[in-house]
Amino acid sequence: MNKKENKKALCIMSGGMDSTLSAYMIKSEGYDIIAVHFNYAQRTQTKELKCFNEVCEDLKVQDKYVLDLDFFKQLGASALTDENLEVPTGGIEEGVPITYVPFRNGIFLSMAAAIAEKEGAEVISIGVVEEDSSGYPDCTESYIKSMEQSINLGTKETTKIEIRIPLVSLKKSQIVQKSLELHVPLQLTWSCYKNEDKACGVCDSCRLRLNGFESAGVKDPIKYA
Asked: What tens digit of pLDDT does each residue of 181-191 get?
């Protein structure tokens, strides 16, 4: 019997390439996947939810949660949730870009921890990338490890949750290559910050994705404007 059989992992999945690969990596270890998706009033909310559902179907996920966090729109302060702010398209920015959503991953992980405790999941996976990313402060390994410690301090003694960040030190080209190895349906994933029909190709997220495919020597299967 597989050592990991019947053990549960809660996977935070945006419908994007990184969190999708993370889920497939966890599934390959024999975990039963509980999928969690957050609608947080982001510009591409409808497209991301569609991608999430299609990826879950491919993964044969039995249990999934879709949570609405509308307060992010009221909060604003990010070009992803405030349509008065323009999504930058001039190239990958230095420092923390205006597409950073304040403490988003902290809030996601807190809610995921509540579900994981209820479901008896021992692992939470999140597809954060520190090495080759937009520079968000809530995507660093040190931050995620501190959240893991806080979650375990704030839950029952019998609850032991490990936060897995399998992509944190990978480059986008390595993420593409690993996705191909695991037969991840990259055509079902979405990365664009601006558009829901054809990806813009010029926002930070599109540029990082396209650079990854180019470096890996593979054509991106999604459509671009």
From this structure: 999 999 999 99
Mean pLDDT across the chain: 95
| Cα 146 from Cα 143, distance rounded (Å) | 5
- Reading the block at residue 218, the tokens are 């593979």
DSSP reduced 3-state for 104:
helix
Model pLDDT, residue 131 = 81
Global pTM value: 0.95
Instruction: Write down all domains in the chain, each with its CATH number in brackets.
Output: 8-216 (3.40.50.620)
Task: Report which of 48, 47, 28 is spatially closest to residue 38, judged by C-alpha positions.
Answer: 48
48-53, long-range: CB < 8 A, 24+ apart:
48/14, 48/15, 48/16, 48/190, 49/15, 50/15, 51/15, 51/16, 51/188, 51/189, 51/190, 52/13, 52/14, 52/15
In the structure encoding, which two tokens stand for residue 194, read together? 């601006």
* Per-residue model confidence (pLDDT) at position 5: 54
Within 13 Å and on the Cβ side, how many CA atoms surround 148?
17
Whether the Cβ atoms of residue 205 and residue 199 lie closer than 8 Å to each other = no
How many C-beta atoms lie closer than 10 Å to residue 43's C-beta?
21
Residue 166 CA, chain-centre distance (Å), reads: 11
Strands (E), 93-223: 123-125, 162-164
Q: Which H helix or E strand runs over 37?
A: strand 32-39
User: How many CA atoms lie less than 13 Å away from 159 in the CB half-sphere?
Assistant: 21
